[in-house]
Design brief:
Blueprint (H helix, E strand, L loop, with lengths): L2 E3 L18 H8 L10 H7 L10 E3 L16 H21 L2 E6 L1 H10 L5 E4 L4 H7 L6 E4 L3 H13 L2 E4 L6 H13 L4 E4 L13 H9 L3 E8 L2 E3 L7 E3 L4 E6 L11 H24 L13
Helix pairs in contact: 3-6, 7-8
């Protein structure tokens, strides 16, 4: 088994699972002007790849994959963009969100009591659609969040770090259980967790089971937290992602906390999942009602 380090190229946040080997010939063609002929012996290919001499942090298993081409997720220009874009984007987010004004917070006492009863442990849960303002709101609290191992996830992880977040890497589609276990361990040791109930790709407004399992395993309460605004951009994404406009007014809603007992079995977990889904939707409707009708949350069909 051969391991290759890939890091000041992408930096410490970049992560690729060792469970997903990368076709070394494909990888070399992305990052070297000279096309390297595939070899049955990984050592031969490694010796011919000049760029690898400069990359010491990330260990990736590199081996030929019989009969299957595995596309390397990064482009040649990502090395530059991953260093330049995240601090710029983070600064833009901070300035935009600082211009907004929170005019009302509903349910703050619920959050306070839940955290006191759990000796400081908490897992904040929201919908993916309402994520944008939380970049600002929870960054200062250094909340630990789960971010996917994809190329987009790498950019998100870098931006999140500049905003103050901690992160573990994984999602429901890749590396999820390992990331969930790591997040649980961090919460047990004092971190505050953050979860997107329907992320990263939906379906919209359908809570996944991961948050429930995390609460059961850590005995930390799930605290639904939602917001809405009087003025925002609404993207035509799968969940109609919302971004508040500059100088807009916002309201916040803390839902009734949910603590999943350690003895909960599969059937019980589904019941708690439905409760979480209901409380998140209840909070979303309350927030939107403060400024008018409920915001759209399904992608428009064309």
């Amino acid at each position: 088994m051969h391991f290759v380090s890939l890091s000041p190229l992408f930096g410490p946040a970049f992560f690729v699972s060792a469970a997903s080997p990368i076709d070394c010939g494909k990888m070399f063609r992305h990052y070297h002007t000279k096309v390297i002929k595939k070899s049955r012996h990984t050592n031969t290919a490694l010796l011919n790849c000049k760029i690898l001499s400069n990359i010491p942090e990330l260990q990736i298993e590199v081996r030929p994959i019989a009969g299957k081409k595995t596309k390397f997720p990064f482009k040649w220009y990502d090395a530059f963009l991953l260093r330049v874009l995240p601090p710029i984007v983070a600064m833009f987010i901070k300035l935009l969100m600082l211009s907004c004004r929170v005019i009302r917070v509903e349910g703050r006492q619920r959050e306070t009591e839940a955290i006191e009863n759990s000796c400081g442990a908490a897992i904040y849960v929201t919908w993916h659609q309402r994520m944008s303002y939380h970049f600002h709101y929870f960054g200062a609290r250094h909340v630990t969040v789960m971010i996917s191992q994809s190329r987009d996830g790498e950019y998100a992880a870098r931006v999140a770090k500049w905003l103050g977040f901690k992160n573990v890497r994984g999602s429901s589609t890749r590396g999820g259980m390992d990331a969930l276990r790591e997040l649980a361990g961090r919460i047990r040791h004092g971190d505050t967790g953050g979860m997107l109930a329907d992320g990263p790709r939906g379906p919209a407004r359908v809570a996944k089971i991961g948050s429930i399992i995390l609460s059961r395993d850590t005995q930390a309460p799930l605290i639904p937290i939602l917001w809405s605004t009087d003025r925002c951009w609404i993207l035509n994404s799968w969940d109609r992602y919302m971004i508040p406009k500059p100088f807009s007014r916002l309201v916040f809603y803390y839902g009734e906390p949910i603590t999943v007992p350690i003895s909960a079995k599969k059937k019980d977990l589904e019941e708690y999942r439905l409760i979480l889904e209901e409380r998140l939707n209840q909070g979303t409707k309350w927030c939107d009602s403060q400024f008018g009708p409920e915001r759209p949350w399904r992608k428009e069909k064309r």
